[in-house]
Amino acid sequence: MIRRGITDRMMLWPIVWPLAMGIGGAFGQDVPPSQGAVARVATSAASQTFWRIAEDAAMLAGGLSVQLDKTFHREGEAMVVRIDIPRAGYLNVLSVGPDDVPTVLFPNRHHPDNRVSAGSLTIPNAQMTFELKAMPPDGTTLVAAFLSREALDFYQNGDGERDGEGAMQDPFARLSIVSRNQLRQLAGKSFAVLPRAAPLLGGMAYGGVCAAASDACDAASMPGRSAGFEDRLTPGILLESKDGVSLPKGIKPRPIHEKGIRLTKVSEGFMPRLYNDAASYCSIAYGHLVKKAPCDGQEPPEFRRGISEPRGDSLLVQDLRRAQLAVMGMVTTALSDGQYAALCDFTYNVGVGNLQKSTLLKAVNAGEHERVPFQLRRWIKVNGKESAALKTRREREIQLYFESSPIPKIPPADEDLSVIDIRIGE
Q1: Nearest-angstrom CA–CA distance, 269 and 389
Q2: Which CATH superfamily is domain 35-221 in?
Q3: What residues does CATH 1.10.530.40 cover in the chain?
Q4: Strands 139-148 and 200-210, how do they pair?
Q5: pTM of the predicted model, to two decimals?
Q6: Less Cβ around it within 10 Å: N or C end of the chain?
Q7: Is the pLDDT of residue 95 over 60?
Q8: Which is it for strands 200-210 and 72-74: parallel, antiparallel or unpaired?
């Protein structure tokens, strides 16, 4: 039995293996991982990092507002997570730091019951006998929350020391491979259906950890790296001239609904600092193009300091505007919110010119929606090579286009299925 008032200071122990993802600091636990846990995490990181898995799942599921008490914490400072919960369910909260170790913050040994009611929840609160503290390594940390309809417990199903009966003994567990797979599966299902039918809701916040003795505590003062972003593609729409796309005077762009924005975010990924993408173009946030040249320290001061996710969101909204104008101006048939959002994401990725000349646009304007999945799946090549990331993006666009409706599985007779390079077009 845990005595009220006992606290566990949490830290992430250093793990020695090549890092595939980003920068960061962490909120972790005070128990070193077992060798088996390290091996499993290392194996997973070789294919996709826990950071990216948690980030993608939170974006795909959506529906939760997650906030930290402040964006930047110095080492040793207490951290508070606030979550707005729209419906009753089972809550799991994760923290992933720069070493890609996923720690289950909630539930935990001191508060094992993760059944929650609708309303605002603060972790920890006065009824919880633990605290969260910012610990090294310094940098950016991802905090992601997930609310499931059915019972889901990442703590009891996590990696850590157990007693003879199999009960978790560590104060805070590591996310297990089994739970990781559950998370990915539920998030994917949630994205494919209407929000009211989603089995999982998700949300996230980015925090920063600074050295206790440092003069400044902001994005610019934290160590940074862009591992995993050097292969990111420049959005096709940002490579084009900004001329030639407009709407009649007085007509405003149709908003992209929230799930569509999440699709573009999960496809682009968020980087708060400047990085060079696959074309060696200086970029930041969700693929925002700073200049068609490598970063050289001459960028605007705002970008050199690093930006917050909300600022990155505003840049994405700005960059998506041209895609909205193109879809509204070129599509002549009525579109649902999901169809419109899917086409905006496609246009952002491949460019306005490629949309305009595409068989996809002709099929949409003819009302031949049964052809759309097969036309979208053609756009999976870049610079002469097929891309797994583009294949995933196209499938998600198809899910959004046919949101909660059956997706055609058999192409019409004589449908052109040849693969298209997004940098060349048809």
Answers
A1: 12
A2: Macroglobulin (MG2) domain (2.60.40.1930)
A3: 236-401
A4: antiparallel
A5: 0.84
A6: N
A7: yes
A8: parallel
Helix 337-350 to helix 258-268 angle (10° resolution) is 30
In degrees and rounded to multiples of 5, residue 286 shows phi and psi of -90, 55
Q: Which helix (H) or strand (E) holds 82?
A: strand 81-85
Q: Is the distance from CB of 23 to CB of 273 less than 8 angstroms? A: yes
Bridge partners of residue 146, in order along the sequence: 92, 202
119 Rama sector, left if φ>0, alpha if ψ -120 to 50, beta otherwise: left
Measured distance CA(295)–CA(109) in Å, rounded: 46
Write the CA distances from 195 to 31, 91, 185, 188, integer angstroms: 38, 17, 16, 12
163 Rama class: left (phi>0) / alpha (psi -120 to 50) / beta? beta
d(CA 112, CA 132): 16
Those residues whose C-beta lies under 8 Å from the C-beta of residue 369, and which sit 6 or more positions away, are 339, 363, 401
Give every strand in the sheet of 271-276, ordered side by side.
271-276, 282-285, 288-291
Contacts of 182 (CB under 8 A, 6+ apart): 152
Q: Which has the minimum average pLDDT: 36-45, 121-130, 205-214, 268-277?
A: 36-45
Q: How much is the pLDDT for 223?
A: 65
Q: Would you say domain 236-401 falls under CATH 1.10.530.40?
A: yes
DSSP H or E segment with residue 388: helix 388-401
> At 305, phi and psi to the nearest 5?
-75, -20
Q: What are phi and psi of 17, to 5 degrees?
A: -165, 160
Nearest to 402 by CA among 347, 338, 332, 327: 338
| Tokens (6 digits) for 209 | 């950890």
Q: Is the pLDDT of residue 323 over 50?
A: yes
Q: What residue spans in the chain does CATH classification 2.60.40.1930 cover? A: 35-221
The percent of residues above 70 in pLDDT, for the chain, comes to 87
Q: What is the pLDDT of residues 331-359, one digit of tens each?
A: 999 999 999 999 999 999 999 999 999 99
